[in-house]
Inverse folding.
């Protein structure tokens, strides 16, 4: 039974490729990435853009609807030393993280997208939305060394005193949404420009999402470095006496955005190839004909 199901799936796939080959595109995407969170003061800092890249595939379901899959890489970063708010500067953190995303989008073309060999439309603007999973791993520079932050439980996660707080997942869900414009420059090639946000379900892209913990508790659980990174306000508090050293239980996060979650951003230019002919013949078994 399983082998029959596999055969049907394979033959169906071959039929789709044979009939709809000209509706399939594969391409590359290059651009930039950024983030919105605590360490960026809920905005994208212009000096914190980093290179991003992706590979993509499109299947044009109709002239108005396209299904797209992406595998993307980007980097995000932030520095409290750049903050305009004194309380954020006193927090005195910094981080960076590489992002690896796998996502599926539906594009809604605002004008009809030319299928097959046609290049009739000059530009096709579109909106997109979808779902994906992504992996992140915030790190910080401290005393000339780089440390992964999640294992250090900087807000007391995983300690007995803060047993209600679990360490945040490094792989989780995102919801991509945005807009773009694409154009067929020939029968075989498409160029496009796209920008989109990723709404996440974590407030820890920057390792900041809760309250200051007791540094002694963090130190006993994870060591001296973790103890120091749990509260770095003492390093700069003398410059800002009106704020002073943060106390245990005070808010470390300043988030007040959608779902109290961080976001990240991709924008770039894509270049894709339209498959004209895969050279695959439809198996006669699908139509019931026999030779």
């Amino acid at each position: 039974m399983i082998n029959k199901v596999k055969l049907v799936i394979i033959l169906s796939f071959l039929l789709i490729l044979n009939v709809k080959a000209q509706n399939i595109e594969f391409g590359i995407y290059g651009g930039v990435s950024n983030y919105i969170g605590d360490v960026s003061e809920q905005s994208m800092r212009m000096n914190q853009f980093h290179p991003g890249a992706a590979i993509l595939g499109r299947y044009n379901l109709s002239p108005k609807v396209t299904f797209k899959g992406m595998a993307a890489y980007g980097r995000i970063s932030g520095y409290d030393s750049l903050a305009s708010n004194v309380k954020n500067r006193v927090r005195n953190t910094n981080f960076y993280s590489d992002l690896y995303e796998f996502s599926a989008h539906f594009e809604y073309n605002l004008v009809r997208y030319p299928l097959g060999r046609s290049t009739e439309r000059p530009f096709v603007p579109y909106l997109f939305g979808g779902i994906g999973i992504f992996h992140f791993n915030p790190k910080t520079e401290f005393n000339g060394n780089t440390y992964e932050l999640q294992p250090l439980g900087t807000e007391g996660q995983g300690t007995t005193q803060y047993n209600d707080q679990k360490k945040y997942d490094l792989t989780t869900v995102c919801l991509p949404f945005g807009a773009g414009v694409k154009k067929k420059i020939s029968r075989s090639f498409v160029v496009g420009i796209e920008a989109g946000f990723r709404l996440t379900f974590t407030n820890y892209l920057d390792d900041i999402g809760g309250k200051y913990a007791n540094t002694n508790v963090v130190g006993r659980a994870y060591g001296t470095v973790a103890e120091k990174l749990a509260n770095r306000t003492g390093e700069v508090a003398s410059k800002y006496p009106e704020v002073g050293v943060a106390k245990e239980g005070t808010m470390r996060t300043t988030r007040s955005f959608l779902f109290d979650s961080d976001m990240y951003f991709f924008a770039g230019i894509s270049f894709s190839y339209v498959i004209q002919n895969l050279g695959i013949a439809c198996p006669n078994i699908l139509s019931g004909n026999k030779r």
Observations:
- Helices lie at 2-20, 86-91, 215-222, 224-229.
- Confidence is low (pLDDT under 50) at residues 11-17, 279-291.
- DSSP finds four helices and ten strands in the chain.
- Residues 2-284 form a domain with the Porin fold (CATH 2.40.160.20).
